[in-house]
């Protein structure tokens, strides 16, 4: 159960070495799926120039050197190699995959420690649609790395500290703890923030109280810290409601908000200054990483302590990068954050390298999340221009899914359960089926379609396979015959399934979950063709053929379910 493209790459490389010498062993054979055969290798064209021979001649030499090959190789056109694998090879590999609990997904040795910074909503405001995407994409990456055997450390870098907390706490005192908690738990963080802000601007005594409160908070005054906890705990309870709805794997143990770094900031600045990495400029402590200039060609500063002595977003990220490498022992750090913060992260990484806190052996990547747009092509908002409340948005997805299931004859409880899976699956899959850095239009009608590359379509594909097994009167796990693809549609499906493990590895390597969605969508499409052309349980289909096909159905189902699980898309048993 190795990906055929990988197997072929190795085999052709061996042939290159034996035909033209070991210096060619690493050449990319340029294997691509082909219309005329299973695959095509185009290496002869590029190699011909270097060898000063004709491409056809080079292709012919490769063909001859491919001895003991589990398929046929033909030279065609100006020098392409058309490769067709033997049915028996595909049968053996697919059957092996069916017997493999890991479905061909490799286990990384030695495991890496991968720190994934994702979700990270701001407590001073409502969790909004942008954080929906960072949450969903980050969670998929966490699941994929774990499946590969890596040690994943989730870090929810909550915006839970800073000057706004002065007014937020004073507002809490004004309206009373109970009322504040009720409001925050209900996800009215934005309203709460706006009310506090309005008073701050209109009322001088409130403004003074808020300013004093920032100082008492900074100094660690026990009562102020208690009030901060009252505020934060209620806010986190709302975030957790959203995570639970979505089926996201984040827990309270993964919270590592800005407040956590507060005690480290003074030392962070001292160490950077002492090492000569940071210097005072216009009263502020700054790092000037080389290569960053502003519009006026002046070096761009990363400000780690403002001229008034206060710390900011960049100070915290410098402390965090040191903590993640030094304390969490990260081999790799992924920051799943909006694309609009690209410059910030490039500067933080550069400053981290300068300080030696982010050594070359540790990879840091900003997984840029593109903006979510409304149907009007602008930043996603409600009609009144307010940002959209996330719990309402998610509930709307469930309600719409429920309406679509109305005519299917389910009892109320079953329908709600399926609607939840379909609604959340639709929202999550929509995020994961496009590349994470593109802007995309949030469109309920499209994401809830039962056809096309959507969550419901993928879920429906699994439900359809399950219904085949119900018809056959057996469980998928009981389909243990070997897989023997005879018809072209069976063969194409089996060949495709062999690539699953390789795709999972690629998602991790490139931090691109949409590669997996594309693979699963192709799986579902090939399954549809197979199911149209190759009856599984039907009169006139002999028992042996039926058993082979059931085994292929079972393998397809496992790949789909396992893949959707990696994406965090729930799979209802029926639909
Ligand atoms: N809370 C920030 C925001 O909403 C995202 C934090 C991302 N992580 C980080 N280490 N800066 O924009």
From TrEMBL:
Which InterPro entries does this chain map to?
A: aa-tRNA-synth_I_CS, Arg-tRNA-ligase, Arg-tRNA-synth_N, Arg-tRNA-synth_N_sf, ArgRS_core, DALR_anticod-bd, Rossmann-like_a/b/a_fold, tRNAsynth_Ia_anticodon-bd
Source organism of this protein record = Nonomuraea glycinis
**Domain Arginyl tRNA synthetase N-terminal stretches:** 6-85
The text of the family note is: Belongs to the class-I aminoacyl-tRNA synthetase family.
What Pfam family is a match for this entry?
A: tRNA-synt_1d
Report which residue ranges the record marks as coiled coil: none
Q: Which UniProt keywords apply?
A: Aminoacyl-tRNA synthetase, ATP-binding, Cytoplasm, Ligase, Nucleotide-binding, Protein biosynthesis
**Gene behind this chain?**
argS
Q: How does it assemble?
A: Monomer.
Please provide one cellular component term from the Gene Ontology annotations of this protein.
Answer: cytoplasm
Q: Give the protein name, as stated in the record.
A: Arginine--tRNA ligase
The reactions it catalyses are: tRNA(Arg) + L-arginine + ATP = L-arginyl-tRNA(Arg) + AMP + diphosphate
Q: What is its EC number?
A: 6.1.1.19
Q: Does the keyword Secreted apply?
A: no
The protein's enzyme class: ligase
Q: Which CDD domains match?
A: Anticodon_Ia_Arg, ArgRS_core
Q: Name one GO biological process term.
A: arginyl-tRNA aminoacylation
Entry GO MF terms = arginine-tRNA ligase activity; ATP binding
Every copy of the DALR anticodon binding domain together lies at 458-575
N-terminal signal peptide: none
- List the subcellular locations: Cytoplasm
Task: Extract the NCBIfam families matched here.
Answer: argS (TIGR00456)
Query: Does this UniProt record's set of keywords contain Nucleus?
Result: no
């Amino acid at each position: 159960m190795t990906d055929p493209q990988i197997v072929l790459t190795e085999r052709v490389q061996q042939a290159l070495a034996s035909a033209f010498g070991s210096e060619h062993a690493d050449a990319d054979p340029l294997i691509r799926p082909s219309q005329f055969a299973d695959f095509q290798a185009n290496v002869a064209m590029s190699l011909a120039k270097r060898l000063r021979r004709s491409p056809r001649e080079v292709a012919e030499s490769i063909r001859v050197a491919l001895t003991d090959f589990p398929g046929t190789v033909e030279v065609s056109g100006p020098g392409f190699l058309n490769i067709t694998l033997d049915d028996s090879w595909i049968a053996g590999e697919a059957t092996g995959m069916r017997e493999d609990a890991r479905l061909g997904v490799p286990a990384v040795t030695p495991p890496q420690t991968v720190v994934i910074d994702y979700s990270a909503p701001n407590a001073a405001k409502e969790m909004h649609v942008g954080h929906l995407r960072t949450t969903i994409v980050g969670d998929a990456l966490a699941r994929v790395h774990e499946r590969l055997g890596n040690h994943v450390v989730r870090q929810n870098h909550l915006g839970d500290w800073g000057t706004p907390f002065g007014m937020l706490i004073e507002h809490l005192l004004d309206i009373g703890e109970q009322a504040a908690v009720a409001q925050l738990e209900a996800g009215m963080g934005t309203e709460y923030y706006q009310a506090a802000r309005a008073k701050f601007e209109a009322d001088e005594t409130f403004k003074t109280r808020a300013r004093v409160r920032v100082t008492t908070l900074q100094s660690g005054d026990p009562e102020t810290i208690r009030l901060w906890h009252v505020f934060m705990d209620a806010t986190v309870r709302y975030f957790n409601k959203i995570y639970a709805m979505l089926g996201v794997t984040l827990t309270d143990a993964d919270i590592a908000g800005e407040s956590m770094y507060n005690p480290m900031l003074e030392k962070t600045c001292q160490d950077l200054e002492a090492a000569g990495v940071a210097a005072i400029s216009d009263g502020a402590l700054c790092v000037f990483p080389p290569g960053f200039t502003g519009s006026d060609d002046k070096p761009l500063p990363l400000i780690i302590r403002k001229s008034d002595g206060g710390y900011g977003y960049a100070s915290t990220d410098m402390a965090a990068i040191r903590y993640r490498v030094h304390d969490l022992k990260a081999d790799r750090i992924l920051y799943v954050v909006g694309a609009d913060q690209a410059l910030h992260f490039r500067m933080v990484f550069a400053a981290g390298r300068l300080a030696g806190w982010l050594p070359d052996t540790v990879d840091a990547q900003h997984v840029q999340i593109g903006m979510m747009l409304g149907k009007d092509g602008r930043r996603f908002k409600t009609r009144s221009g307010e940002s959209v409340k996330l719990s309402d948005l998610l509930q709307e997805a469930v309600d719409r899914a429920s309406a679509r299931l109305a005519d299917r004859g389910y009892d109320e409880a079953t329908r709600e359960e399926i609607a939840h899976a379909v609604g959340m699956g639709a929202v999550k899959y929509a995020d994961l089926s496009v590349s994470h850095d593109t802007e995309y239009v949030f469109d309920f009608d499209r994401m809830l379609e039962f056809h096309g590359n959507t969550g419901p379509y993928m879920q429906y594909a699994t439900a359809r396979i399950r219904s085949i097994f119900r018809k056959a009167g057996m469980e998928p796990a009981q389909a243990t015959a070997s897989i023997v693809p005879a018809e072209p549609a069976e063969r194409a499906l089996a060949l495709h399934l062999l690539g699953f493990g390789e795709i999972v590895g690629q998602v991790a390597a490139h931090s691109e979950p949409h590669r997996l969605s594309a693979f699963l969508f192709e799986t579902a499409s090939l399954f549809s063709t197979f199911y149209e052309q190759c009856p599984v349980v039907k009169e006139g289909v002999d028992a042996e053929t039926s058993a082979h096909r059931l085994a292929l159905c079972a393998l397809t189902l496992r790949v789909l379910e396992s893949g959707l699980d990696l994406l965090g898309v729930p799979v209802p048993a029926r639909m």
